[in-house]
Amino acid sequence: xxxxxxxxxxxxxxxxxxxxxxxxxxxxxxxxxxxxxxxxxxxxxxxxxxxxxxxxxxxxxxxxxxxxxxxxxxxxxxxxxxxxxxxxxxxxxxxxxxxxxxxxxxxxxxxxxxxxxxxxxxxxxxxxxxxxxxxxxxxxxxxxxxxxxxxxxxxxxxxxxxxxxxxxxxxxxxxxxxxxxxxxxxxxxxxxxxxxxxxxxxxxxxxxxxxxxxxxxxxxxxxxxxxxxxxxxxxxxxxxxxxxxxx
Length: 247
What we know:
Elements: H1 8-22, H2 30-55, H3 61-71, H4 79-101, H5 105-126, H6 133-152, H7 160-177, H8 189-195, H9 208-242
């Protein structure tokens, strides 16, 4: 009997992406947020099923039906008002497929992972959440993190300068969008020490599992920081806007 290995990393970042889509929690449509739970519950297994098939370009008509099934909930989003944000996951998906088609697994993996977390933008908009800065933080953090992991793998031909350049560009973008919420920049301290100084490659593929476990813990800490700093930033913004304490 063939045992199936679950893609725990996919479920992990999918769940965290849902949490990020809810930040700062106030102003979110609770009904829609709850409706998303079963949608995500079947979307993630579909993505897990499709990932190896997309990587090997072995997609049949059943897989196409699954893709259509996963896409159904998103037709209920008001496209006209959020088209700029909907384009992000669409472009990432197209580029991911292009890299896999050209047998570039490294970049296919990186952008495929980024595509999954970019769905947090779509989920946030479905929930009526207009505070999308944490989602952008999360997307760029995961993008640089995926590059970092690919660099650390011994048999991957990726220079550390690519990881560093991607994070420097991310820092510039995140600084520009955080002019009104500068406290959020505090969450970038730990990732900066990791991505700007990625160190040497792993000595053995056996160390990849440990790297993944450490990365997962750091991902959780990053999301917790995003939550706390977002709440504090909005509270301070409201305080100074009203000119009086907020209770």
